[in-house]
Design brief:
single chain, mainly beta
Length: 523
């Protein structure tokens, strides 16, 4: 024990092995354009084309990149609760890709995971109805075994949702002016200015060049007393600890939407895929910078080697000499709040997930295996633990969960909102409350996985299907070009049997097969 403590102490004193370059903040922040749309027979239609291009991250250097409808990143899609939407996704790349709607509640066949890859030259058109709270979601590729590369090359964008609560809220709301998208990413550029994907360390590629909306050294001109930053960690591996050295900020929303009330804080930790909306107050004529402090990675074995030592600026905010007034952040609950709500006392089933090495519950991803079978409308408790002393996170498709507790204690304020992705500190236990509503398909799975994208690509992912009460899992259809890693299928049917430790469902005490309501919308 003494030796281990000494090792950790030594690691704490070690310098970073992934330093980030200092930048001059002299380039205006690029604002992803709002995607155009048209309404056809009551459906709002968007289109996205994945394509190759070049982007000038550094002066005089053109870097080969990928993007949607451009050379890097993609436009911001926006829709309101209750709208029917469709997105025409065209693949102009030379290899298959996909588009996953991260954080979205929608049918499994529309989810854009590894079972919905789009071949070169082909178009895929998912269609669904927006039925969840206002939130900052995003979209990115999810091809089997290649997600890290596709995201790293530039394929990603925001998908903003609105509802009655957000429309009436006292929050900055002029897109690109006082309601600002902030996609934070890091890259390694080789001597020729090309993206370097060869990093072999944990938890993946840790870059020395930080981009904000694809801009190096970005500043944003602030014209109002308050500015709302929609923060997305769009990196493939790096965790950020974002805040301001000279002021606090108000956290107003997490991954899946608005909090019950704003939370005043100095920093927010964001692992890859996590989002946070913060409101920052400015005074006329002042300048401040969004800063990433050394990330608190928990009890990892060597934080200096895993992105836990770097401190760097991300975005400069420059306030005008005269600022338009902004109200204090405030909002009322949505009219859907009661049906969206999750209640721990309704939980009927427990499941446990342990992440270690590149496995979940001792198994690597198998495209042909169903790992969990969930009954639609059941409220469940998922106990998730990182048993590996490296950074891991946990993302669940289709749902927004609530964190019940961490090691048996109430979650910190930053984890009290709706979430779809969470950083897992090693050797800590997180209990999540969630419910899969509305959509069933015994043959097409949703994913759950680590969102350190190299870990996901190397097998730290599982599959679940949602079935009607009394139903069972079907067979995942084989797809051309998608080789299954095994022919077996393990169906985790709901019954009273106790499965192997660390996996499968357990009926909670006092919960009969019909105790939990069905058909409620959870978002």
């Amino acid at each position: 024990m003494v030796a281990a403590s000494g090792l950790l102490a030594g690691c704490a004193l070690a310098p970073s092995v992934h330093p980030v370059q200092e930048q001059e903040f002299t380039t205006a922040l690029a604002i992803p354009p709002l995607a155009p749309s048209r309404v056809v027979d009551g459906t709002r239609m968007f289109s996205l084309t994945a394509q190759e291009g070049t982007t000038s991250f550094l002066p005089g250097v053109e870097t080969p990149t990928w993007g949607f409808d451009g050379s890097y990143l993609g436009p911001t899609l926006r829709a309101a609760r209750g709208e029917r939407v469709a997105v025409e996704v065209t693949n102009d790349l030379d290899e298959p890709t996909s588009v996953h709607w991260h954080g979205m509640h929608l049918p499994a066949a529309m989810d854009g995971g590894p079972h919905q890859e789009v071949a070169p030259g082909e178009t895929w058109q998912p269609t669904w109805t927006i039925d969840q709270p206002a939130a900052t979601l995003w979209y990115h590729p999810h091809p089997h075994g290649a997600t890290e590369e596709h995201v790293y090359r530039g394929l990603a964008g925001l998908f903003l949702l609105d509802d009655d609560a957000s429309a009436a809220a006292s929050l900055p709301s002029q897109y690109g002016v006082d309601d600002v998208p902030v996609v934070v990413q890091d890259k390694v550029l080789d001597d020729d200015g090309r993206l370097d994907l060869d990093g072999a360390g944990e938890p993946g590629i840790l870059g020395d060049v930080v981009l904000t909306n694809g801009t190096v050294g970005a500043y944003h001109d602030v014209t109002t007393e308050r500015v709302r930053l929609r923060l997305l960690n769009g990196s493939t591996a790096r965790t950020y600890q974002l805040g301001f050295a000279d002021r606090a900020m108000d956290l107003v929303a997490t991954d899946g939407g608005l909090l019950d009330a704003r939370v005043r804080l100095d920093q927010v930790r964001l692992a890859p895929g996590e989002r946070a909306e913060v409101v920052v107050t400015m005074a006329p004529g002042e300048t401040t910078r969004l800063h990433s402090s050394p990330a608190d990675l928990g009890g990892v074995a060597a934080s200096f080697a895993m992105g836990g030592k770097e401190a760097f600026d991300v975005l400069e905010l420059r306030a005008a000499n005269v600022l338009a007034p902004s109200p204090e952040p405030a909002w009322e609950p949505s009219s859907h709040a009661a049906t969206d709500a999750l209640h721990a006392e309704d939980a009927a089933v427990e499941r446990s997930f342990e992440l270690a090495d590149r496995e979940i519950n001792g198994r690597r991803m198998d495209m042909g295996r169903i790992d969990e079978t969930v009954t639609v409308g059941d409220t469940e408790v998922w106990t998730v633990r990182n048993a590996h002393p490296v950074p891991h996170s946990f993302h669940v498709h289709d749902v927004q969960f609530r964190v019940l507790d961490v090691d048996g204690d109430p979650p910190p304020a930053v984890l009290t909102g709706p979430k779809d992705t969470i950083y897992l500190e090693p050797s800590r236990t997180y209990r999540l409350l969630l419910r899969f509503d509305d959509y069933t398909d015994p043959d097409v799975p949703y994913m759950y996985h680590c969102h350190m994208l190299r870990h996901e690509d190397e097998g730290m992912m599982g599959q679940l299907v949602v079935v009607e009460p009394g139903g069972s899992a079907g067979e995942i259809p084989a797809h051309e070009g998608l080789a299954h890693e095994g022919a077996s299928r393990e169906s985790a049917a709901h019954d009273d049997a106790v499965p192997e430790p660390g996996s499968g469902p357990r009926r909670m005490p006092g919960a009969g097969p019909d105790d939990a309501g069905h058909g409620h919308h959870g978002g």
